[in-house]
Design brief:
binds glycine, 440 residues, alpha+beta, 6-stranded antiparallel sheet, binds adenosine monophosphate
Length: 440
């Protein structure tokens, strides 16, 4: 059947989704609906609608007008707003869970309780709160080692960690008081120590096909310094593991994703059809769950969709038709390094309106994806967030990093990136940290 596929969203993640779909055979017709016009996605699409991606009726109206047969939803906000529900109701198949299933990301308390109820390993201690009652006790037990999380989607601003944002018990109480004053329920959980990794799975509700493990870099500056960002860059290894992980860690993450998909089907009475993204920490006590996301990671998906060998449109069709069990999903046995080029001042006070100049030619093994970029008078203009993602792929992480860095360094203007992502010293530091955590 000839597909017309709607992509919802307009970042580099959605550019990578569009590029992977466009490589499929036969190539589907692509259309995009989003709040901004990404020129990379536009160049691959036959129609581009601008509007609110969290307004289900707007997305559905565009999809029906374009005779869309399947939709792929990139970001979390439309999932939490019920855009998948509205598309399914209009008889359009969707890669991306319905509102109820997307609670695995949109409610931190729901995710923790699901693991607890179905006896799935990976939870640290946690407790849900709607007031300050009982906080004293938890803070006494987990003094200097707790994390406080707004229970709803807070765009990355809802999590505060002891020793990081919370430097005293007064800071912890102050944040909780603020949450209560705004009527936000919250979760307090034990702070666990280790190295973080992302393990995403394609999921049709029953069958999961796991993707290689990836490590993101959330801090803005070299050496994991500075404010938290959406993610400055990521790497994967050619064996699809990560240098600091053991076979058992990967197996544990696979098992948690599999059991969470089964628990979600039971709890919500419907199959989870989309990408299930576990954010994990490898610790002394094994793999712990940090959070779930109901979508592709950004930048994680840029590495993985670049390495994906299997036809992506076919995988999406198998997800929505519940036929993933018939599918072998393979990724190129290569390492990859992705770095984001971001405007000076990002993330707190980013410059806007600077011209982005891409290198005239890219070396073999390098792919670029546009993110917060507009076109004015024929020039690419940065609009004030992560701007351009550069992905290098090669036989080793070191070679992939060198390729990526060579291209990133050619980009002029008031932009910066993290030169350390995927370098030998940066990976050594993570290996040492993992060893120190294990022997503590
Ligand atoms: P989240 O929004 O849940 O991903 O949290 C943001 C960041 O806070 C994570 O990437 C972790 O670095 C950190 N974090 C969240 N939960 C925990 C935890 N239980 N223990 C240690 N760090 C955590
Ligand atoms: N890379 C972090 C995220 O996509 O949430």
């Amino acid at each position: 059947m000839s597909e017309t596929i709607l992509i919802v969203g307009s970042g580099a993640r959605e550019h990578a989704i569009a590029a992977a779909l466009a490589r499929s055979s036969p190539p589907p017709k692509l259309v995009c609906f989003s709040g901004a016009r990404n020129p990379g996605i536009a160049s691959l699409s036959s129609a581009y609608g601008l509007g609110s991606i969290t307004a289900p009726a707007e997305v559905v109206a565009f999809a029906l007008a374009q005779h869309v047969t399947m939709a792929v939803i990139g970001p979390e906000a439309p999932l939490a707003a019920g855009v998948a529900d509205a598309l399914w109701a209009a008889k359009i198949s969707v890669v991306g869970p319905t509102q109820s299933l997307a609670r695995i990301e949109s409610s931190k308390g729901f995710a923790r309780e699901l693991l607890a109820k179905y006896k799935i390993p990976g939870n640290p201690f946690f407790q849900r709160f709607a007031s300050l009652d009982g906080l004293d006790e938890v803070f006494a037990r987990y003094a200097n080692r707790h994390v406080i999380k707004d229970d709803g989607l807070a765009g990355g601003k809802g999590v505060k960690v002891c020793g990081d944002h919370l430097l005293s018990i007064d800071d912890s109480f102050a944040f909780c008081r603020e949450l209560v004053a705004h009527g936000h329920p919250f979760v307090v959980e034990e702070k666990v120590e280790g190295e973080e990794f992302s393990l995403m799975s394609f999921c049709d509700g029953k069958t999961l096909r796991h993707m290689p493990a990836v490590q993101d870099h959330k801090r803005a500056y070299v050496g994991d310094k500075g404010p938290n960002t959406g993610g400055m860059g990521t790497y994967t290894d050619a064996d699809h593991k990560l240098p600091f992980l053991q076979e058992v860690d990967i197996a544990a993450a696979h098992e948690i994703n599999q059991r969470v998909a089964e628990a979600l089907a039971e709890e919500c009475g419907a199959p989870y059809q989309g990408i299930l993204y576990g954010g994990f920490m490898a610790t002394k006590e094994g793999v712990k769950l940090i959070e779930y996301n109901a979508r592709f990671g950004d930048p994680e998906s840029l590495n993985l969709l670049t390495l994906l060998e299997t036809d992506f449109a076919g995988i999406c069709r198998a997800i929505v038709d519940t036929t993933l069990a018939d599918y072998v999903v393979s990724f190129s046995p290569k390492a990859s390094v992705c770095k984001y080029v971001v405007p000076e001042g990002y993330p707190d006070n980013p410059r806007k309106g600077d011209r982005l100049q891409l290198p005239a030619e890219l070396p073999d093994g390098v792919t670029t994806y546009l993110s917060a970029v507009d076109v004015k008078d024929g020039e690419l203009i940065a609009t004030g967030s992560r701007t351009l993602a550069v992905v290098g792929t090669a036989a080793t992480i070191a070679d992939a990093e060198a390729l990526c860095e060579r291209v990133v360094c050619q980009i002029p203007g008031p932009f910066f990136h993290r030169a350390d992502i995927g370098t030998g010293p940066s990976i050594d530091r993570r290996m040492k940290h993992m060893k120190a955590v294990q022997s503590a």
